[in-house]
Amino acid sequence: MKSILFLIIILLSGCSVKRNVFHNPHFFYDDKNYTIIRVNPETRNEDIAEYLKRKNEKKITPPPSPSDTSKGIKAYDTPPKPKRIVKPVYPSEVKSIGYQGTVILQFLIDSTGVVKKAKALTFLTHENYYIISKNKTKYQKLLKQARETKREFNEIEELLAKSALAAAIQTEFMPAYHEGKPVPVWVSFPVSFILDYKKDKHFPARLVP
């Protein structure tokens, strides 16, 4: 849990999203599954078709443990480290109505450190996330359930999810390593959107976009 929080703190203290990835030919957003993927503009249609085919064939792959070598995701000795950090934007229309909460993300970092796919698994209210995050067993159970059961986001939640996804897909990493070689890995972590972190005893300042 500490390593996850360390990653969030680093990630959310970086630079802001610089472009709208949802209208960028290098990305494709699956609004039915709250997932964004990287595509090659020259083979965009083929890449999207392949993604949709794979999505329909199997459920989302959970992040592997260091000993898991299934489905092409190798074990790793050294986890990925942020290299170019992008900070999610707190949507003004969400902030203005006092809405806050936490988006749980999962994304795939390839062997070059590029985020190839990012998915919003679920959304928790500020209070619920704080309670669950204090219990490692409950948090792992939440992740497992979120991967196995699709959650429908409301309009406001999706705005926050898209902001978190845009930041994740643009962030660059030093890749994970196994036996001296770079390998692809899955990473899961929460992104919290908090209105007044200075008065909030639950979260440090840098957990806020």
Description of the structure:
With about 210 residues, the protein is of the alpha+beta class. The protein has one domain (about 1-205). It is built from six helices and eleven strands. The chain has helices at about 1-10, 45-55, 90-95, 125-135, 135-150, 155-170, and strands at about 15, 25-30, 35-40, 80-85, 85, 100-110, 115-125, 170-175, 175-180, 180-185, 185-195. The strands form four sheets. It has a five-stranded antiparallel sheet, with helices on both faces. It has a two-stranded parallel sheet with strand order 1-5.
Record keyword descriptors for this entry:
single chain, 209 residues, alpha+beta, 5-stranded antiparallel beta sheet, two-stranded parallel sheet, 6 helices, 26% strand, globular, disordered N terminus, disordered C terminus
